[in-house]
Design a protein that fits this description.
Number of strands: 0
Order of helices and strands: HHHHHHHHHHHHHHHHHHHHH
Structural class: mainly alpha
Radius of gyration: 25 Å
């Protein structure tokens, strides 16, 4: 914080000599932003734009700050303005691609990243950053094979970057290539021993390989580093359930449910409903049917189109011999997903009883 305050004072001296000094205004705005005064920092950069709205560095700075602040529509507009000034500016294309990923305009993000890659053959840092954006866009689009090539390219460009290997490991786990995912996770951990994602992906790979105790040890390492890491708590609960340690699994799920999400994926799409469903499944194994039913009911209250939650309600109600309620739950599940074969089978069982 002190260094930013000192930088601001230095830029103020330059501006006292020439209050039209755009670079000083931009640098001052960035320093103010980094002290936590985001709006004031952006407003200071905007003063540089007011002096000359064709000065591309000011628009690039505005785009970068807005992206960092999570104001991606504004950041995209600033990148577009920069491209109107110079459509060969690699940093404008990089900023645009990053904004588009955050806005879930994934095909456009990938195309913008391609432009940045094409324009920066001799700028390794831009290449690595833009290949990462492209890989993320492909991954979130479900284009896993293409994303795999992109993440491997990032690892090739930055072999000593923890993020390159942890991202690659995450995708490999998603593709069920657990042996390869484990190798990539271990590389991330070797580079940065406190890598949250590296340890979490190591746990996921080990879980996928059926090495449940080793997976729990990896998740415990994550939780040692960050006790409120939602994903590790849920995954640890799953590994404990697989080992038949249902009480411990429920404790892990309960901790996960209490966490208020802060990361963007969970803010965009909370998965509390799924964790409640997993908790319900563990309670079923303990024959705590009433508690399980409450968990399933809470899950569908959060996500009314959660067919599996209604299916599990139906099965629990059937076990409790509440057949009419079970029929209603199965009907709900089938109304959401008519191809849910287990719901059809269980409904027929109840109808015959």
């Amino acid at each position: 914080m002190k260094k930013y305050q000192e930088a601001i004072q230095s830029f103020d001296k330059a501006l006292a000599i020439n209050n039209q000094h755009q670079d000083a205004l931009i640098a001052k705005g960035i320093s103010i932003f980094l002290t936590g005064k985001q709006d004031e920092g952006i407003a200071t950069v905007d003063k540089a734009i007011e002096i000359n709205n064709s000065y591309i560095d000011a628009w690039l700075a505005r785009a970068d700050l807005l992206n960092t602040a999570g104001r991606h529509e504004g950041a995209l507009a600033a990148s577009e303005k920069a491209l109107n000034i110079d459509n060969k500016n690699v940093y404008a294309w990089t900023g645009k691609s990053g904004s588009l990923v955050k806005l879930r305009r994934l095909d456009e993000a990938s195309k913008a990243a391609d432009e940045a890659i094409k324009l920066s053959p001799n700028i390794p840092s831009v290449q690595a950053n833009t290949w990462t954006v492209k890989a993320n866009a492909l991954y979130e689009s479900g284009k896993y094979e293409e994303a795999l090539l992109a993440y491997k390219k990032v690892a090739e460009l930055t072999p000593n970057a923890e993020l390159a290997w942890s991202n690659l490991s995450e995708l490999l786990n998603r593709m069920k290539k657990y042996d390869e995912a484990l190798v990539a996770a271990d590389k991330a951990i070797k580079i940065e021993s406190a890598s949250l994602s590296g340890w979490n992906q190591r746990g996921n790979a080990l879980f996928g390989l059926g090495r449940n105790l080793d997976a729990i040890a990896a998740y415990d390492k994550v939780l040692q580093l960050k006790p409120d890491y939602h994903y590790a708590l849920v995954s640890k609960g799953n590994a404990l359930s697989r080992l038949g340690k249902y009480e411990d699994a429920i404790a892990a799920y309960d901790k996960a449910i209490k966490i208020v999400p802060t990361d963007r994926p969970l803010l965009r799409q909370p998965d509390t409903y799924n964790t409640l469903n997993l908790k319900g499944n563990a309670l079923i194994q303990l024959k705590k049917y009433d508690e399980a039913l409450l968990a399933y009911q809470e899950a569908v209250k959060i996500k009314p189109d959660f067919a599996e939650g209604y299916l599990n309600q139906g099965k629990t109600l059937q076990t409790l011999q509440k057949y009419q309620e079970a029929l209603a739950a199965y009907d709900k599940a089938l109304g959401i997903n008519n191809d849910l074969s287990e719901a059809k089978t269980k409904r027929e069982e109840v109808a015959k009883s």
